[in-house]
Fold this sequence. Notes:
By secondary structure, the protein is an alpha+beta fold.
Amino acid sequence: MKYLYLLLFICNNVLSQNSNLFTRDSSKLASSETIMVNINTKPAIIDSTLRTKIPISAFVINDVRYDTAYEGVVIRAAILEPIVGFQKLQLTNGAKNAISGYLNNKKRFSFNSSTPSLICYLKQFRFSQNDSFVSRTDKIKIYNSLNFEIEAFVNVGNDLVPALRLDTTITTLSSQNGSFDILTEALDVLVEKTRAMDLLKVLTRKHYTFQAIHERYQQRFKKPILGTDKPAVGVYKTAMEFINNAPSITEYKYEKNRWSNILYTKTKNNVWVPELDVFGYFDGYQIWINAKKSFRPLVKVGNTFEFIAELKHSHTSKRIVAVVPYSPVIPVGVSAGIGIASALTMLALKNQIIYAGTVIYQVNMDTGEFY
């Protein structure tokens, strides 16, 4: 009987730890600081002849991203302390209104009121920014990245005609914090592709009804894992098993203590072996994702999932600790002062700092990747 009590105590303790971790991460995600960014700050082009001519009457933005609550994450390492933290980034007035305002600025672009509008479906607009302390480099730089995916249709009566598509990842390097120019640079690419579009050629393509296109994008949100409050218990070997709520392994055990964080599954010979290459699992209480060599609880946000993972790495910086002169042979015609100065030897020690903290990731519900 005492062994049964011990087993129950261990199980309850593990469940309590897992529940506490889920509660802690959920709280962090909900209470994280948000940076508001206004992308509609570019100056007007006074001379109307210099404005970019767009062969449509307007851009119409439909936000069909899996999560529309915010647009990105800013990751910072503290200057004085080896701590890494994150902030969420949100466009002023929301992505739909902010992007629509930027693209339809008649003081910068010249539209043709007699032509159809361009109906745009925004599928991805995910920004990340981190400084070089988080990227293992001695040079202090700011790294920016934007996953941008949008599909556009020309509106003809009650029909939509496929016009153009952008699916790209843009990266830039800047020298200062708080620079978010990459956001408008991506939109400028869309403007340029629209400017170069052959409208007459586009109109010869196959037409689709509004309803057909609408259902196509709504279908993205009907993934089995998004439509259930009770996922199937078991181990997801792949991202597709997770998305389809179809774990292929139902017999498993999980061990978590101070030194290990291991998921075990049973072989055909009934031998428990550690699983290192699975996507995650559902234990009947929370979904856990295999990330950063550990299993983290997923938190559902909108039509996707997020999680917090620890970030630890060593950052090596050079520190001058001594200047040691020596006695060189000074060439004829060179002053002693210059000769001695050039002969000074600087001794530099490498100072290793362990930066640690937490960062936020979001699951791409099309691929299962996280960023």
